[in-house]
Amino acid sequence: MTSPGTARRLWALAEPFHALTYFAPESRTAGENAGLIGFWRTYFAFRAAPLGAVGAEAVTATFYNFEPAFVARRVPAVWEATPPAGALAARLAGVDAAVRRVLGEDWIDSAEAAEAAGLAGSAAASIDPAGRPLAAANAGLPAPAEPHLALWQGLTTLREHRGDGHNAALLHRGITGAAPHVLAVAAGRSTREWLMRARGWDDTDWYAAADSLARRGWLADGGLTVEGLAVVAAVEADTDRLAVDPWPAIGDAGCDRLAGLLAPVRRAVVVAGEWPDQNPIGAPDPA
After folding, report:
1. Contacts of 47 (CB under 8 A, 6+ apart)
2. Are 134 and 163 in contact (CB under 8 A)?
3. Which of 17, 43, 154, 212 is at 20 to 30 A from 263, Cα to Cα?
4. How far is the CA of 225 from the CAs of 179, 183, 219, 236, in angstroms?
5. Mean pLDDT of 147-160
6. Number of structural domains in the chain
7. Which domain holds residue 199?
8. Per-residue pLDDT averaged across 73-99, rounded?
9. Where on the phi/psi map is residue 221: left (φ > 0), alpha (ψ -120 to 50), or beta?
10. Which pLDDT value is given to residue 1?
């Protein structure tokens, strides 16, 4: 049977391809062409657009890990620059241009790209949307006709499904605000500098979260205690378990085949320099 390990492996393989929409210069250019000036306006508009013209409160809630005022400085103003439909078109245009540069026309026209799109699309179509707002919103979008964009859309739905589950695992344990980031740094998955800059928290927020985690017995001298290690492991295990749901739709053989198809895609993105080291996403290297 498909397992939590399978879900984690496929996320690790797929995430750099999805993240072209954040890190590739073509995506930033597409955002600027749509009137979205600056990295963060493009980020919030592109990622939130499947939800519609929502306000800062909804974006803060569904994205979960951003400082609220950091979000409010961009949302809902981004919808004055371009409506959600325009942001959706721009994000696909950015991904299209990035994929053509990074993977080339031969891959775009290949049987492998079409096969990967079919497998990812079948898995994405099978998600249970209950409690998964970002996954459900992306699943409700029409699949692009071009296989490389259909693959990106399917993998985006699946990664938002995983992210929704991760948020549930954190919330279940009362880990909110800056606390998930403090734990991530203590676990060695990212750096304080990256996460504070990328999620909008300041020193006061960070130290307050660290103090709260220390009072819970999870942090000591900036490092994880034995109990803290167990909590972090439990959150990751629950996230992997909650991410399994779509994958039985393609079965073990389909999951293995998709992993094999994604491995060179991931490698091409990394070699092109579009997957920054120590980025705030925290996806591991594939096993």
Report:
1. 21, 63, 134
2. yes
3. 43
4. 15, 11, 5, 17
5. 98
6. 1
7. 4-271
8. 98
9. left
10. 60
